[in-house]
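Hi R.,

Here's the chain you asked about this morning:
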Amino acid sequence: MMKNIIIYCTLFFMTLLWTACEKKTDADGILSPITNVDNVRKLYKGQDVQLNTTVLEGAEKIVGLVVSDHQHGNIPSGFVVMQSARSPKIRGINLDLGNDALSFIPGDSIVVNINGAVLSKQNGTLVIKGLSRDKVEKVSSGNTPLVQTVSVDGVNKTPGAYESTLVQIYGCTFNRIFGEPFSGDKEFHDGGVTTLYLHTEQGADFASENLPKRAVTSGIVFIDDQAQAKLWPRAFDEITNTGVDVDPNIPLGKSPIIITGFLSDPTGSDANYEYIQLMATQDIDFEVTPFSLVTTNNAGTATPLGFPTNGWATGDLRTYKFNLSSGTVAKGHFFYVGGYKKIWGSNSADISAANWIVSYMYADLDGADFGTATANLLANSGNPGGIAIFKGTTVNDTSEPVDVIFYGGANGSIFSPGPPKLGYRITNTDSYLLKHATTNADQNFFREGTNTFIFAFPATSNFAKLGGVYNPSTEKWTTKRVLTNKVIGNNSTITDLESDPGMTKLE
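And here is the predicted structure, written out as tokens:
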């Protein structure tokens, strides 16, 4: 045992030296016997590669941790999946060991002599063939492999970076019928614009379990023979159901969704890093009852110029629309709509664990039905900006929102009394009234009659926290929302946004 530990420590040190310094020799000019998994993967150029010390530049071994688990029947037969043991560059590879694969379990640390083996592809996945059991030394067991958190879009953009590694994806939303089993390929997304498949073999011990509508899912990424990445969960407990079963017979209230905060000025580039925080005042299944979120930016140069002739549906650079048509949220819980799942910009903490109903790259893609791709979704200076929520996915100049806020400056072409009246429609909220309180006259637009309230611009690079109290039973605000600046930074967490005592609450 002591001999194995000494061998392993020596090999591990040499691997660190190889990967960190990227040198092919040690101080005495001797070629290292160890190469890393990433170097081996790069050798494949579309044809089988005979592995030897020549192509491996003097090396003959790779080291890593086993992540495959044959116990539950959802791993390709005969494969041992190993990934490198440390960050920042986790890479994986498959070892074809036939029946001997059953003798390895997750967390086994192994040293593999690949000299004389063949690097090939099997059913689309990169694999090392021609290995015998005596080529694989198990050094220790019970280690904890690293699990990479990634988005569906991230896997699709660079599948080779995640192939044969253990990953976790938040917000997996399945378009399924109630009672549908796991067995087979099940398409899902995580709020972005691309999809993946969750693959479950018919013989897996959880194949007949009911597929959830929404889940946090872990598993191993494999590539099939159509170059399609698929996520294979190793066991049923790697799927955590985060969805809500919503009774379709319960009608929607007046304001089933309320706006609770937004980030209009993240550090660095705003493009694809702005987002809006919302709260459900009742359980919602967006597949059954879809909604729309529309933003407006009325900068002086934003086209079309002049008053918004089609209200919230004006489009171009004035208004931008998101469709909320999948996923679920429970009453009293927060959810998010925006770009990348980062809390404060490109270098900040990942907040994929939050409930992202839409993660859409608005700086690269036009909006749903209207809105031109824009790097400034939410205004952070100048004329007023606004956010509105609508029932359904059809929004036009007559659509009345279920909640709406405005913030920013006092100028801009916002409302024309007409005829015809042109502007952004409001609804009864904590700040706006559809009827004048004294005269009972109609005032359906922002800046019409007494509907002049506007929040100030948030401080630079602060999260705009809208704190108030809403009563779902009376469908009224018992405490008006107040905008306060929540200081956040690169290391802030989702708890900082959702557990602050000044956040909006349901009464």
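One quick note: Residues 148-241 form a domain with the OB fold (Dihydrolipoamide Acetyltransferase, E2P) fold (CATH 2.40.50.140).

Cheers,
M.
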